[in-house]
Amino acid sequence: MFERLFPDEYYESAYVIPYEQLYEQGIRGIIYDIDNTLVPHGAPADARSIELFERLKAIGFKCTLLSNNKQARVDMFNKNVNVYTIFKAGKPSPKGYLKACELMGTGTKDTISIGDQIFTDVWGAKRAGIRSLMVKYIDPREEIQIILKRRLEYFVLREYEKKRKSL
Q: How confident is the model at residue 1 (pLDDT cuts 50, 70, 90)?
């Protein structure tokens, strides 16, 4: 029942993902959520996120920030990382994911999506046919609608863990 919402992989943080290994596997594009995936909600790019994007560019990746936030929020984060951006993306609609691939010159098979929410990031990527990597959210202080979604996510992640352990 929940399987279409399961991430393809689950990590502690966007900062521990084996990016070099992904590049060796043929991945060329990365779509990122911003808030609670890379930095706490509303925060600008910090030294760690700036260093990550420098590393990704050096490896050879193209990156896009895909956010449901307004342009000002996305631009504020992107000011110091300088990658493609899509704001007011309408996630979980697949349109933003496909537009990100177009911007990066990649396809759905050589692109991954990284985010912290099942009902926007994971589901949107899956609907677009893109491999989805989920990370634990950074800061538990969130808007009420996200807190409510986190409660539903708990049940999906519990089933995901059961399935992973049975393999």
A: low
